[in-house]
């Protein structure tokens, strides 16, 4: 798909991977509408020439408000990038169930609800695309982020089913699986993180080249290990 001239709705576009996706798509000639929760970051993106909509996607009301704010404008590409991370490890302390609910909604329910709301206008375009950003942890979970891993695994499963449902229609369904990327969410975690600029570049390349998956960076290695031995892949990831 050529992104020049396309209208993109990008959730979670004011920081991290999303911010770099927005910048790179704009540089290629796309019109990007982005969402975020932090007012100062949204203002920064507006100063760069983006339309930015404040949206809390951790609940149904927030998703519905975003759809209402879009009005009836056409959308060519929907990128479900917004996500929440939450610690959930019963070995250290009892987790916060409300925080877990918010994580599950933002990472899984919100993309499903947003796709359902916007599918008619995507179907109305000559060609369209949906990109769901999951994670390498959707393939094999680590130990400390059990709820986050579950939400991304759920979105991975939904994405594969949606792709099959839309087979034959001019809507390309893509799953993007980043590795550990240097963002605010991963601050203080791990080493050798991928720069968000490179992660964004590989996701956009998958869109432009018609790939069903963007296995970014070390996720390519994880996919290869998993194809040979799922048990080994899970063992490796549990150590992280």
List the topology elements:
Layout: E1 7-10, H1 16-27, E2 31-36, H2 39-47, E3 51-54, H3 60-70, E4 77-80, H4 97-123, E5 128-133, H5 146-165, E6 171-177, H6 196-209, E7 213-215, H7 219-228, H8 230-238
Parallel strand pairs: 1-2, 1-4, 2-3, 4-5, 5-6, 6-7
Helix pairs in contact: 1-6, 3-4, 4-5, 7-8
Gap between N and C termini:
36 Å
CATH topology: Rossmann fold
CATH architecture: 3-Layer(aba) Sandwich
CATH superfamily: NAD(P)-binding Rossmann-like Domain
Keywords summarizing the entry:
single chain, 240 residues, alpha/beta, Rossmann fold, 7-stranded parallel β-sheet, 47% helix, 14% strand, globular
Could you walk me through the main structural features you see in this protein, from its secondary elements to its overall organization?
The chain is of the alpha/beta class and 240 residues long. The protein has a single domain (7-238), classed as NAD(P)-binding Rossmann-like Domain (Rossmann fold, 3-Layer(aba) Sandwich), CATH 3.40.50. The protein has eight helices and seven strands; from the N terminus they run E-H-E-H-E-H-E-H-E-H-E-H-E-H-H. It has helices at residues 16-27, 39-47, 60-70, 97-123, 146-165, 196-209, 219-228, 230-238, and strands spanning 7-10, 31-36, 51-54, 77-80, 128-133, 171-177, 213-215. The N and C termini lie far apart (36 Å).
